[in-house]
Amino acid sequence: MQKRFSPRRQVIASGLLLGFLLVSASLACHVPAVTEAPRPVCTPPPCGPDEVYYCPDECPGGCGTICATPTPTAPTAELPTPASSEESTVVVSPTITELNVSCQQEAWGWFEGALEMVSGVREQIGCPTREHRALTAASQDFQHGYMLWREDEQLVYVFYDTGGWEHYPNRWQEGMLEQDPSFGPPPEGLIQPKRGFGLVWQEYPAVHDRLGWAFSEERLCDEAHSQTFQRGFMLECMHDIVPRAKIRVFILFHDQTYAIYSPP
Questions:
Q1: How far lies 139's CA from each of 44, 216, 221, 263, in Å?
Q2: Which of 90, 115, 227, 238 is the most exposed place for a label (fewest CB within 10 A)?
Q3: pLDDT given for residue 83 in this prediction
């Protein structure tokens, strides 16, 4: 005979089942959502047609990625011929197993010294993009920075001790006043700049205010060089003075910041 549950037991069982389903649904609705932390996103540097992107360490979102030249491995040898099939040769495509992260163009003398000796410069400025070249230049020291003129581009560069660099066209020509007498005599021991440097200093109040007065005369560089890099360029000026030469390498970055390397 088949055993049947009483109506009272059926009601209790149905209630227990309904309660279990309600509790399960409530727990499912309150499971905390898991969200990933936002990852940084960076723009990799522009690479040449023979370069690939390479991450030397950790590069979340592309940050820290550099350009590198791939060095492919040689194709693998032929595989043994299967005993039960016709002869076949499998050629494996070259794969990148080693990345040559050295620059294709060499940095010139003192510029290579700056890359080696000034922390972070090599990573910030990148590789040289052209051969270095000699040029005619002049420099002058000020209370709060420097000026440097280069003849090939007729530009006057201004470097501030507080940070940042700018450049202005050299508009001074022979026959123009070398100095503006309206500025009056300089403080004792200081000098009013003249000619190209003086014209920039006179025409741009911000330059005058931030640099202050000069404390040395303008002087041609006995040796000067320049070289362009991926994210900036370098200018070198050497004054052949006694007891030893005074060399400055100005490292100019595209973000308008700069550093100076003075070889010992």
A1: 36, 10, 7, 17
A2: 90
A3: 44
Radius of gyration of the chain (CA): 35
**Mean pLDDT for the chain overall:** 79
How far is residue 227's CA from residue 176's CA, in Å, rounded to a whole number?
A: 32
Under 8 Å between Cβ of 68 and 54: yes
Structure tokens, 208: 């005058």
For residues 219 and 222, what is the distance between their CA atoms, to the nearest angstrom? 9
pLDDT of residue 81: 44
Tell me whether strands 223-229 and 232-239 are parallel, antiparallel or unpaired: antiparallel
Residue 106 CA to residue 102 CA, distance in Å, equals 9
What residue type is 264 in one-letter code?
P
- Max CA separation in the chain (angstroms): 129
SS3 state at 83: coil
Q: Are 262 and 117 in contact (CB under 8 A)?
A: no
Q: Which run of H or E residues covers position 18?
A: helix 7-29
